[in-house]
Amino acid sequence: DEIPTVVGIFSAFGLVFSVSLFAWICCQRKSSKSNKTPPYKFVHVLKGVDIYPENLNSKKKFGADDKNEAKNKSGMPKNSLHLDLEKRDLNGNFPKTTTKMQSSPDLENSSPKHFAERKKDSVSPDSLKSITSLSSEDKQDKLGTLFFSLEYNFEKKAFVVNIKEARGLPAMDEQSMTSDPYIKMTILPEKKHKVKTRVLRKTLDPAFDETFTFYGIPYSQIQDLTLHFMILSFDRFSRDDVIGEVLIPLAGIELSEGRLLMDREIIKRNVRKSSGRGELLVSLCYQSTTNTLTVVVLKARHLPKSDVSGLSDPYVKVNLYHAKKRISKKKTHVKKCTPNAVFNELFVFDIPCEGLDDISIEFLVLDSDRGSRNEVIGRLTLGSSAEGTGGEHWKEICEYPRRQIAKWHMLCDG
Fold this sequence. Notes:
Blueprint: H1 2-34, E1 44-46, E2 49-51, H2 69-75, H3 105-109, H4 136-141, E3 145-153, E4 158-167, E5 181-188, E6 194-196, E7 207-215, E8 226-233, E9 241-249, E10 260-265, E11 279-287, E12 292-301, E13 314-322, E14 325-331, E15 341-350, E16 359-367, E17 375-383, H5 389-399, E18 405-410
Antiparallel strand pairs: 1-2, 3-4, 3-10, 4-7, 5-6, 5-8, 8-9, 11-12, 11-18, 12-15, 13-14, 13-16, 16-17
Domain C2: 142-263, 276-409
Keywords: Calcium, Cytoplasmic vesicle, Membrane, Metal-binding, Phosphoprotein, Repeat, Transmembrane, Transmembrane helix
Family: Belongs to the synaptotagmin family.
């Protein structure tokens, strides 16, 4: 009788000890989580190139150096802007202040300065002054400022870009009067390296502080490159809104002396000004015996630029319609970085009816873009109801079956 009693006592003590230990561990985890800021660690791998943001938890002040901090604060006017990244919340946003800014003659006469001072982790506060007495029209034209740094690591032979923050972005959501901004960055002209930051919710002053390292870029080629930053606002239910862009040619920028801190005004996205869409050379042949249509996409020339690099990555989609219903589709390969592409690709379509009366064919010339939706450069339609050269070409292949007939056609707006 004594043995079961002893076993029961030990079991009770063991149960109490286990519950106490579990409760203590939960409390320790909860307290440790409350003191930690969520780390944002990403790994990007594009075409064998490792691209990753690093040192995201080691936030440092984006203002003056620690030695000169007290001096700059005492000599700084009350209404000047001073950014302290330590005061951000968990989402990386700055707390809103209710103090009103009053304009002064010094601020009215000042203008935003592009700072390129070679410091390790500091920026002069003078470059962060903004004009507070702007008219409503000027404020609408302002799309904000992008702050970033450039560096070249000679030991690792890597080009390093740190996207620090953006200030004064416009509100893309009319209901909440905020934006959900993020940034896409592309290295031109080859467009091989494409990265993007995380999305920061409901803020007009996003602090990203993300570092991207691009390996395999020789220092001698840096002068030939151009950085393209696209600032967008995330939209869950439709296509993301484009806020603006920043273009940084690296020609003349010296990175051998260390990190270079820069800021640039965000401008409107470059809209293609050329009214011409270019030309497309196609060849068609109608085989009446087999009731097939052979289409050869030969060349394209004088295509307009689809982005700031001045070059397109064109390809052609071919759609076959019967009574205004698409029954077949084909597409060519993508030709990289050229406004004058040579395709030489042949497609054979089976015609579901005798003759070509209810048949039409559509050519869409598009610009391939991995980071976003492919844009339509130009369009061409051939058929009995088509106007201009499209109708003439269609009439010839109907009158002369089994003959391959090629023609140049002007592309119209997509």
